[in-house]
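Sequence in, structure out. First:
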Amino acid sequence: MKLQRFSFLLVFIVLVSCGQNNVKIDKKIAKYFTENKVDGCFALMDNGTGKFMVHNLAMYRDSMYLPASTFKIVNSLIGLQTGKISNDSMVIKWDGVERRIKDWNKDLTMYEAFRVSSVPYYQEVARRIGRDTMQFWLDSLSYGTKTITGPIDSFWLNNSLKIKPDEQLGLMKRLYFNQLPFFKSYQEMVKRAMLFENNTNYRLGYKTGWGFDEKGNNIGWILGWIEENNHPYFFVLNIQSPDKEFDMWNVRIKMLKDILKEQGFFEGKM
C-alpha cells in the first residue's frame, strides 16, 4: 500500500510540475530539428526555478514512444534491487555470438555494459528478473504504459512498452535526487554509469536510446542532466526520422550539445 501511494504521488508530481506558467516555448530550438531533418521534442528543466524550456510542447506532454535502451536505467535498478545484479562490477559472460557492435562481444560488467549500451547483457538481466517481478516494478514506478508483451527480454524494444518524454524527464529528476524506490547506493551506481563528462565547468550525465516504431521510423532518445556550479538542469531529447540510413549515433548527441551550448552551458557560468 505504501508503494502504491508513493507511485501515485510521483505521477501526480510529474503531471503538475509542467504548468503553463512555468513553461517557455523556445522557437530558436526548431532550427536544430530542421537542419537535421528530424521531428521530435526537447525539454530542459531548471531545478532551481522549476521552469521548463520546451520545443514541441504537445509532443513532449502527450506522445509516447518505446524507451529502447533508455530502459537500461530501470532495468539496472530493478536488477540491483532484486539481487540479480550484485553490483556494478558484476560480470555476465559473453554468449559467444558475434554482433555488429564489437564492444558487446566480450564479458562485461554492469558498468561497462551500461556505458556501451549492450543489449545482450540487459536481455540476460531481464530474463533473470523474470516477468512477474519486472511487472511489479513497472507498476510500482508507473513506468509509461507498464506493458510487457512478447518475450521478457525485448518488451522495451518491440513497442509494447511506451513512455512519454515528460515521464522520462521526471524519472531523471527523481533518480538524480535518489527519490526512486530503490536503495540509494543502487541509484548512485546507475548515476555513476551515466556520467560521461565531468570537468571543472560542468558534469553531464545521460543515457541514449535507439529503436524503431511500428512503421519502421527511427526513434532516438537522450535523457539526463547537466550540472554547473552544483546546480542541476534536467533534459530530454526525442527525435524521429523515416530515413533508413539516418546517423542516429552522432546526430542525437550533436543536437543535444548544440542546444545546450546555445542555452549557455559548458562554460561553468550557469
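Second:
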Amino acid sequence: MPQTAPSTVIDQCVVALTWVLKDTLGEELDVLDEPVEFLVGGDDLLARIDQALQGRSVGETLQLHLEPEDAFGDYNGQLIFLEQRALFPAELEEGMTFDGYALPQGCNPEAPQELLYTVSEIYPEHVVLDGNHPLAGIALRLELKIEAIRQATEEEVGRGSAGTGFFRIQPITPGSQTLH
C-alpha cells in the first residue's frame, strides 16, 4: 500500500524548496528558482534549517537569520596552507577545489584530509589553499519557500540525503559560483 505524503514537514520526509540566500548586507549569494529536494533529518540541510521547517506546510515561506555558528562556522586561519606551486597542475586557477584526500603528493601532511580546499591565491612559487567553507564566518539570511513535501524513500533515508546536499560543498570547476 503506497504511503501518503505528509501534510507537514517531519523528520525523514523530503521537501522541495526554493530560496534566496543573502549575506547580512543583502548581497545575493545563491538563488534556487526551481524547487530542489532535500531530506529533512538527514545530511542535506543545516540543523537550524531542519528545525525551522518542522511542522510547516506546502506554500509557507520562512525567513531565517543564521549566525556563523548555525551555518558554516567561524573562519579558521589555521586551515590556510601555503604549498609549493610545482606540486599542482599547470592549468591551476584561483577558485579550483581539491578534495583533501586527493591533494598532490608533497603537500603539508597537517592539512586535514576530510576538508575540501579552495585555491585562493596563486604565486609563482606558491599556492594558497583554504580549507574553510566558502561561507565560513558569514552570517546569512535565508528566505525559503516550501514547494512540496513527500515521503522519503528507504534509499534516501539510508544514505541520509535526497541526493542534493546543498550544504555539503562539492568540488567546483573554475569560474563556477554555484554552491549547491
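Remark: The CA atoms of residues 25 and 112 lie 32 Å apart.
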